[in-house]
Amino acid sequence: MISFVVAAAAFNAPVARFTRVTHAAASVQMSVAEMEGTGPETGNKVFDPLGLSKIASEETLAWYRAAELKHSRVAMAAVTGWAWVSSGGPLFPGYLSAEQGVTFESLGRHGYEAWAAVPESGKFQIIGVVGILELLQEASVKPHYTKGGVPGKVPLLWDPLGFSKKLPADQMARKRTAELKNGRLAMIGVMSLVSGHYFPGSVPLLPDSM
Questions:
Q1: What backbone phi and psi angles, to 5 degrees, belong to 35?
Q2: Which annotated residues bind chlorophyll a (predicted)?
Q3: Structural domain count of the chain
């Protein structure tokens, strides 16, 4: 649901190319005309129908990109999990709450029904862990992405073995673009799942049972 609420704003937000400056007072440097994430699907132009890049500061544009990447990753995980469960993939064994007798299997295979079946204490734990990870991420990014850092970089969670450091620059650029495009598609997918749930039949290829 969080992804649905923010997806539109994150998708509309332009994705800028950022580079670090070497002097002590680091600031965000960008070229709106050469933003990463453009392609045939956007007419090889920056997708910015609301003109946000014209009214936002450089720090705000950096925040937009970080938000887009963050919600893209959440949406990709959500769509993958939803598709896995809905298509009959095996569920986690055992109990979600042994005290209340709630097993993972008992949650069912419908996203909304599964969330509703999670005990309240479990919901608070999930939300709490997400909040803690968010705070740790923001605190660990140095310099912060609004102060010259790299938007989307998560030191505590992303690439702990350093595989990306061994990739050439052109390959990294292609992977960043692929992540952006796949993330945008996933956000559209999440919006389709939400729309199909609240408005049955609104998504022609999506069963009403989703």
A1: -75, 145
A2: 53, 68, 71, 179, 182, 184
A3: 1
10 falls within a domain: no
In this prediction, residue 11 carries a pLDDT of 39
Binding site: what residues are annotated?
53, 68, 71, 73, 179, 182, 184
Looking only at the bridges linking them, the beta strands covering 102-103 and 29-30 are: unpaired
Q: Containing H/E element for 175?
A: helix 169-198
Evaluate whether residue 23 is within a structural domain: no
Structural domain of residue 66, as residue ranges?
Answer: 57-198
- Asked whether residue 111 is domain-assigned, the answer is yes
User: Per the annotation, where are the binding residues for chlorophyll b?
Assistant: 73
Rounded Cα gap, residues 48 and 54, in angstroms: 9
Tell me the average confidence (pLDDT) per consecutive run of 10 residues in the chain, 210 residues long.
Answer: 39 41 40 69 80 82 88 94 88 90 88 89 94 86 84 75 84 90 94 88 74
Q: Please give the pLDDT value at position 34.
A: 59
- Please enumerate, by residue number, every residue annotated as part of a binding site for chlorophyll a: 53, 68, 71, 179, 182, 184
Residue 48 domain-assigned (yes or no): no
Q: Which residues pair with 97 in a beta bridge?
A: 102
- CATH code of the domain in which 120 resides: 1.10.3460
Tokens in use for 119?
């005990």
* pLDDT value, residue 76: 96
d(CA 140, CA 148): 14
